[in-house]
Design a protein that fits this description.
The complex is a heterodimer.
Chain A lengths: L2 H4 L2 E12 L2 E12 L3 E5 L6 H8 L7 E6 L8 H7 E4 L11 H11 L4 H14 L15 H13 L5 E5 L7 H18 L2 E5 L3 H7 L2 E6 L2 E6 L1 H8 L4 H9 L5 H20 L1
Parallel strand pairs in A: 3-7, 3-8, 5-6, 6-7
Antiparallel strand pairs in A: 1-2, 1-4, 8-9
Chain B lengths: L1 H15 L2 H6 L2 H13 L1 H6 L5 H20 L2 H8 L2 H6 L5 H30 L9 H25 L3 H17 L12 H9 L1 H14 L6 H24 L4
Helix pairs in contact in B: 1-8, 3-5, 3-8, 5-8, 5-9, 5-12, 8-9, 8-13, 9-12, 9-13, 12-13
The chains are: A alpha/beta, B mainly alpha.
Chain lengths: 272, 248
């Protein structure tokens, strides 16, 4: 047995830092997420949320700090970490020229879901997100909400221990948002899955999250349950607490700064 | 293995689902076959080189293989733009399996395209010297397809956008094609041109195919095969390395 399972933490982050040249996107953050917990990771635009998710999901290498995901260090055992989580990205990531079923099968093969359970699990999940009737339709004919539901189903396909969701309900109507969370919470319960998500909908985080961390300028500025955050700021909603903690300035320039740094970083990498 | 298979399957499926793409990309090779085949045929014959269709067809078959294979690298850029690449990149599979599956898919599609052009050339009057050698022809086509599919992916690994890819492709495709001896015999060339044709890997692909289909070729069959196999392996290696470094 390893450490992270002993103390009940499925994600352990300590001193995590990510620098793009001289810009620090994530600045020495530490937190733990317990197994089975629904953990909200909030912050204004450009605060470092997506960068953190990218590091946790092995898409970016950290500049410093220690990480444990489901008992494995992503730097040392990438594939074991990758197997242990499902992810719904901020932007769509389906192949729209394949059918819903084919997108699921592709995922099942990449994640080596055994043949015996593959078909059953796919059917179960497609029924679960109410897309079984459309399984043979091209994804390009799907609405935004259907695509998101399919991505959620796909992320759950290989029985992940952790589900990462980067603004999973962005641009969806309240009905679809509710549906998606109902699916996720049900699976959480049933399969003892952990959820790590970001969102800009405070009401959503208020409703589903067991614990909330707020990140700003690459640093974690507050962490705790809804009650704790409200008490700490003397407010009575997460939205108010969020603004009390992170201020009310608009962060447009921050986003541009980060995007520019990332673009420069990529250009530089490409030339080397 | 299953990773390579599913990536291959995805590309082949998508290819056969767009018949318009298949038919559309036959226009150019057909035009070249007809215009050059019949237009230059009499000059070629008068120069004592024999039937031009016999000479030209292997070159045009390889042209469509080259175009389709190299441009299959664009699928990677589409995947990146539409976000699907991330799904593949976080999967617990070795990157080189992905690269290999992608190249195999592109090469299969390109080989198929080459075979259609081969059938078209038969209609125009191309005659195969020894039908028993057809499997060897398919093998040569496939190796060349693999070489250029891997090259396309390598280039796509370095680029983020469509425009850049198109630009580089245009700089590559035409020289590779025109300097390969698809149109002209490889003997008696000016020294500079002779050197360049011998650097172009497509030269050996076309020469090999000419050996097998038309019974005439400049270099030895063994040399042709050796060179395209070695270069294909090299490009696959480089491609895997570049693919490894992609940040999704």
């Amino acid at each position: 047995m390893n450490l992270s399972q002993h103390d009940g933490n499925i994600i352990t982050v300590s001193g995590l830092t990510k620098k793009f040249k001289d810009f620090t996107a994530v600045d020495n953050i530490s937190f733990n997420v317990k197994k089975g917990e629904v953990f909200a990771f909030l912050g204004p635009n450009g605060a470092g949320k997506s960068t953190t998710i990218k590091i946790l999901t092995t898409l970016l290498k950290p500049s410093g700090g220690k990480l444990m995901i489901n008992g494995n260090d992503p730097a040392k055992n990438k594939d074991a970490v990758r197997k242990s989580f499902g992810i719904v990205f901020q932007d769509p990531s389906l192949d729209s020229d394949l059918t819903a079923l084919e997108n699921m099968q592709y995922h099942a093969v990449l994640y080596k879901v055994p043949k015996e359970v593959r078909e059953k699990r796919i059917e179960e999940l497609l029924r679960f997100v109410e897309l079984w009737d459309r399984k043979n339709d091209m994804v390009k004919t799907f609405s935004g909400g259907m695509k998101r539901r399919l991505e959620v189903a796909r992320g759950l396909l290989h029985h992940p221990g952790i589900m990462f969701l980067d603004e999973p309900t962005l641009g969806l109507d309240p009905q679809t948002r509710n549906h998606i969370w109902n699916y996720l919470l049900e699976i959480c319960e049933k399969e003892n899955m952990t959820v790590f998500f970001t969102t800009h909908y405070m009401a959503e985080a208020e409703k589903v999250a067991d614990r909330i961390a707020i990140i700003d300028h690459g640093r974690i500025v507050a962490m705790g349950s809804l009650n704790e955050l409200e008490k700490q700021t003397g407010t009575n909603s997460l939205e108010e607490a969020f603004i009390a903690i992170t201020g009310s300035t608009i962060r447009e320039e921050q986003v541009n700064g980060v995007t520019r740094m990332r673009a420069m970083h990529r250009m530089f990498e490409g030339k080397k | 293995m299953s990773t390579i298979y599913i990536l291959w399957l995805r590309q082949v499926k998508k290819y056969f689902r767009t018949p318009s793409r298949i038919v559309g990309s036959l226009g150019q090779p057909l035009l070249f076959l007809l215009v050059f085949g019949f237009g230059l045929g009499s000059v070629f014959q008068q120069a004592g080189q024999g039937d031009y269709i016999q000479f030209l067809s292997p070159g045009i078959i390889m042209m469509s293989v080259l175009f389709t294979a190299l441009f299959s690298g664009i699928d990677l850029i589409w995947d990146r733009q539409f976000g699907f690449l991330k799904e593949t990149m976080v999967a617990p599979v070795p990157r080189w399996h992905i690269m290999f599956g992608q190249a195999l898919g592109g090469a299969t599609v390109a080989s198929f395209q080459g075979l259609i052009v081969f059938l078209l050339s038969l209609i125009i009057g191309f005659r195969v010297v020894d039908p028993l050698l057809l499997p060897v022809a398919v093998l040569i086509i496939f190796i060349v397809a693999m070489l250029f599919a891997a090259l396309g992916i390598s280039i796509a690994s370095l680029l983020e956008d469509m425009q850049g890819f198109q630009l580089i492709m245009n700089f590559l495709v035409m020289p590779i094609f025109f300097l390969s001896g698809a149109f002209f015999p490889l003997e008696g060339l000016p020294k500079a041109l002779e050197v360049i044709t011998r650097i172009d890997p497509l030269t050996y692909g076309i020469d090999g195919l000419r050996h097998v289909l038309s019974g005439s070729g400049t270099f030895g069959m063994g040399l042709d095969l050796l060179i395209i196999v070695v270069i294909a392996a090299l490009v696959l290696g480089v491609g895997s390395y570049l693919f490894e470094r992609i940040q999704a």
